[in-house]
Amino acid sequence: MPPMQLVEPRPARPLPIRLTPLIDVVFILLVFFMLTTRLLPVEHLLLDNATTPTGSATGGESISEMTLYGDGTLGWRGQRLPIPAMVRKFTENGTGEVNLKAIGEASLANFTTSLSALKSVGIDVHWMRATASSNREGQ
């Protein structure tokens, strides 16, 4: 007598290729390369979503340029002052917009401190990473 089978054998058919794991791997690679790629610096990066023009070609006001140095001081028109003192000077001057240029050795903590201090008093700030040639000019 043949042995008794409890489960019927499956018919022989080709197994389909499943795309879900392949797509998962592709997306993981995409995210990895997106996070590890370095982008080229942009001259002036607008940090807010303003759509108004910053100046006109018919003689509008030029935007003041401020430099953030590695020791945490801000430079403007030949003066170097600590961040709170420079913010007070800008509010007394009535300046409403500024280009903030961070030179190479300026720390992220100093940048965010100066950015938040300027924004808190209502000054529109645009950020610019200084190139090697402008670092030498600004010092």
Shape: rod-shaped
Give the strand line-up of the largest sheet. 1-6-5-2-3-4
What is the tally of beta strands? 6
Report the total helices: 4
| % residues in beta strands | 15-25%
Radius of gyration: 29 Å
| Largest sheet properties | 6 strands, mixed
Structure class? alpha/beta
Q: What oligomeric state is this? A: single chain
- Give the fraction of residues assigned to helices: 25-40%
Low-confidence stretches: 55-59, 135-139
Average pLDDT works out at 76
Succession of helices and strands: HEEEEHEHEH
Distance N terminus to C terminus? 99 Å
Write a brief structural summary.
This protein is an alpha/beta fold. It has four helices and six strands.
Describe this structure in words.
With 139 residues, the protein is α/β, with parallel strands linked by helices. The protein is built from 4 helices and 6 strands; from the N terminus they run αββββαβαβα. A 6-stranded mixed beta sheet has the order 1-6-5-2-3-4. The radius of gyration is 29 Å and the shape is rod-shaped. Mean pLDDT is 76; it is low at 55-59 and 135-139.
